[in-house]
Amino acid sequence: MTLSIHGLPVARGIAIGRAVMVVSSRLDVAHYFIKPEEVESEVDRVRAARDAVTGELHRLQASVAQMGPNDAPHELAALLDVHLMLLQDEALTGGVKHWISERLYNAEWALTTQLEIIARQFDEMEDEYLRERKADLEQVVERMLHQMKGTAAVLAPTPPRPKHKPGEELDPLAADAFDAPLVLIAHDLAPADMLQFKKSVFAGFVTDVGGRTSHTAIVARSMDIPAVVGARSVSQLVRQDDWVIIDGDSGVVIIDPSPIILAEYGFKQRQGDLERDRLSRLRHKPAVTLDGQRVDLLANIEMPEDTLGAVKAGAVGVGLFRSEFLFMGREQQHQTRLPNEEEQYQAYKRAVEGMQGMPVTIRTIDVGADKPLDGKLREDSHLNPALGLRAIRWSLADPSMFLTQLRAILRASAHGEIHLLIPMLAHASEIRQTLSLLDFARAELDNRGAVYGVVKVGAMIEIPAAALTLRTFLKHFDFLSIGTNDLIQYTLAIDRADESVAHLYDPTHPAVLRLVADTIAECRRLGKSVSVCGEMAGDVGFTRLLLGLGLRSFSMHPSQILAVKQEVLRADVSKLEAWAQEVVNSDDPAAMLALKA
Ligand code: PEP
Ligand code: MG
């Protein structure tokens, strides 16, 4: 039966493919693809875990047998029998083997995927006794996962491509490989998980939770695949291998579509491809308005390798390198928790070299809130992490970590133009501490005789307090960059990651526009450069407004650059300035923007 669900569109386009479920249950496991040559050893890991748990259960059985009926009730022995039976069941072991060998899932992912499939079968059983066996199965799987800890393989980038066409029946346990596109369905994905998937070939992506500018959505956008977040119960309704349509323009997710719906969306998909082809012709055209104003279109990146896409899209530099992604999700792959100075230096150098002489703006680490370092939220996350130890506050609380990063960035500046950007500053005291740590990092490098270049230092304006004390910021910094994602969150007191208040997350709120407009105007008045690097910069609905307010530097995901360039090429700034002021001063800016669209 066809079902459709509405969520928040975060990355444009249509994706049609088979569902790959990432189960995020209380069993919190890593999800990654192994290399084909690792299938055997991965299956062996599962077998070894199963044998170890079998041994464990046999030992328990033996000790139960020695106890009297008062110490060990009869049910306990029966329960151990059930656990042993479930452990040996072909539905579990055969299924797990299938996901590993056909889809190259790592063992833990394969195990939790198969657990989910069998658990749903248990849920549908009439017999209450049998239904309750689901909890036993979960316990058995948990024991196996526990055994597997510390024996993980290395990550591989690419899953196999399924081979079936829409409408065909598919037996998930069949041995042959498939060849249809894959779409990712999850309750939620930590940004660190998203980074793993970024290296793979998913055609689209949906989550139950998340707001339009949550970090998961931002990474999804950088993958340049259609994506919908905040689709509430999608992960409950979709099953592994279901056909799913993701409409990243309207936020609709269609499960098990009928042939007519499939044909309609297939048509839309082709239209989108044509539009993209048309836009790609603008790649080498300079971004200049009709009245001759040059506009810098820069790229937001998460990893040094993203510079490839940035150059390809015609970016004239990197306006925001979210360096925290170098620090995230490392526990699966590395022994050490944080990258050391040399590792960071190499990464920043790769980014600089990747941009082939164009400037790279590296933002210092911004972890905390919805970007936990290890993919897990802190235990005290109920305390309101978006207002807690995040970004520069985190860095200043751990000066040794911060100095390591500053030294690495400074050293990389010997290889090309680097701008250093500091996130989430609000207090003059934070500015002073940051700048003196930067001086200290330079002194450390001098003592070592290390080479480094000149870096411009800028601050993000993403807290209303910063936007309201621009004079202090402009005194100390060479440039400012407006982080509208957080500026909106903190101005309107709306959690950007919470889909239940997403309808109130409003970039056109007059208070937000006032802060953005004043920041641009003040920088221009003092001749300091200013850019916008929040999601607003890549939204074509705001291009003309921002141009009219005087912005000449926009930083966005490479996938958005060509569409924004098209808007720039069509704009006549001299005719937009008065209108932009009217929008900002209006009670209903959204309506005025819609009129001009
Ligand atoms: C912002 O807040 O607008 C921004 C660009 O930073 P981030 O999205 O990484 O918080
Ligand atoms: Mg921010």
Write the layout of secondary structure elements.
Blueprint: E1 3-6, E2 8-11, E3 14-22, H1 39-66, H2 74-88, H3 90-103, H4 107-123, H5 128-131, H6 133-148, E4 182-186, H7 191-198, E5 204-207, H8 215-222, E6 227-229, H9 234-237, E7 243-247, E8 252-255, H10 259-280, E9 296-301, H11 307-312, E10 318-322, H12 341-354, E11 360-363, H13 391-397, H14 399-412, E12 418-422, H15 428-448, E13 456-461, H16 464-467, H17 470-476, E14 479-482, H18 484-492, H19 510-525, E15 529-532, H20 540-548, E16 553-556, H21 558-570, H22 577-585, H23 589-596
Parallel strand pairs: 3-4, 4-5, 5-6, 9-10, 9-16, 10-11, 11-12, 12-13, 13-14, 14-15
Antiparallel strand pairs: 1-8, 2-6, 3-7, 7-8
Helix pairs in contact: 1-2, 1-3, 1-6, 2-6, 3-4, 4-6, 7-8, 12-14, 14-15, 20-21, 20-22, 22-23
The protein binds phosphoenolpyruvate and magnesium ion.
Phosphoenolpyruvate binds next to strand 10 and helix 18.
Provide an overview of this structure.
- It is a single chain.
- The chain has helices at 39-66, 74-88, 90-103, 107-123, 128-131, 133-148, 191-198, 215-222, 234-237, 259-280, 307-312, 341-354, 391-397, 399-412, 428-448, 464-467, 470-476, 484-492, 510-525, 540-548, 558-570, 577-585, 589-596, and strands at residues 3-6, 8-11, 14-22, 182-186, 204-207, 227-229, 243-247, 252-255, 296-301, 318-322, 360-363, 418-422, 456-461, 479-482, 529-532, 553-556.
- Helix 12 (341-354) runs parallel beside helix 14 (399-412) and helix 20 crosses helix 21 (558-570).
- The longest helix has 28 residues, at 39-66.
- Helix content is 46%, strand content 13%.
- Strand 10, helix 12 and strand 11 form a beta-alpha-beta unit.
- The chain is built from 23 helices and 16 strands.
- Strands 1-8-7-3-4-5-6-2 form an 8-stranded mixed β-sheet. Strands 15-14-13-12-11-10-9-16 form an 8-stranded parallel β-sheet.
- The chain has 597 residues and is an alpha/beta fold.
- The chain has 3 domains: 3-23 and 157-164 and 174-278, Phosphohistidine domain (Glucose Oxidase, domain 1, 3-Layer(bba) Sandwich), CATH 3.50.30.10; 36-149, Enzyme I, Chain A, domain 2; 281-506 and 531-571, TIM Barrel (Alpha-Beta Barrel), CATH 3.20.20.60.
- It is globular and about 85 Å long.
- The model is unreliable at 152-167 and 169-178 (pLDDT under 50).
- The two termini are 38 Å apart.
- Residues 218, 320, 322, 366, 462, 483-486, 533-534 line the site of phosphoenolpyruvate.
